Amino acid sequence: MKSNKRYIWALVLCCYFAAVLMVCLARPEQIPSLSRSLWGIPVDKIGHFLMFLPYPVIAYTAFKPTYPGRWQHILVLLAVFAVGVGLAMGTEHLQGLSEYRSYEIEDFYADILGMECSALVIFLYIIFRKD
Q: What are the b/e assignments for 8-40, b being 16+ CB within 10 Å?
């Protein structure tokens, strides 16, 4: 049964990657227009934050070790975060290469912040869980 859950989470991760690429590379006219800012924060930065917030949870759940050692779980979380940084950087570079989107370092920072927040929650779960 655990093996089936791992496959399901891997499938969810693949769907997540596809959705992120679809949203990041969509033409601007395909994206609904929203207000320019919310509480003084540009809405597109909030979108980037929210888009990358679930990534560490999905990827960690798909690849977490089956044995109880905390260090192994922390190493998997670090690997998941490193791959997420690569994903965020890659999507920004792809946007910069397209003729209808632009590369913005602030978007990359918002992506990283979203991943940091959820990775911190996972890290605290790993540290304080009972084996």
A: ebeeebeebeeebeeebeeeeeeeeeeeeeeee
